[in-house]
Design brief:
Blueprint (H helix, E strand, L loop, with lengths): L2 H15 L3 E6 L5 E9 L2 E9 L1 H10 L3 H14 L3
Antiparallel strand pairs: 1-2, 2-3
Helix pairs in contact: 1-3
Length: 82
């Protein structure tokens, strides 16, 4: 995964939420935590996903941002009235 993939994903999240903040923070045991924060009206929403080092390595090896897809689907489910 490269910076272009991350930038495209952040733009997709931003468009879906109307201006989300995406945070990358150190996660447990050397992993990473990806957080998404946004507002709909006056309501605050957030979603966090922690990735282990192993999960990060598998994602890079596969060349597919499957974790980003999982986060996108979770955020989408929180922003629509299905």
């Amino acid at each position: 995964m490269n910076l272009q993939t991350w930038a495209k994903w952040v733009a997709e999240i931003d468009a879906m939420t109307g201006g989300a903040i995406v945070e990358l923070r150190p996660g447990p045991y050397g992993g990473i935590k990806i957080g998404v924060r946004w507002m709909i009206g006056k309501e605050q929403y957030g979603y966090d996903h922690s990735m282990s080092i192993g999960e990060m390595d598998r994602m890079v090896e596969a060349g597919q941002p499957c974790v980003l897809e999982q986060i996108t689907n979770a955020v989408r489910s929180m922003t629509t009235n299905d």
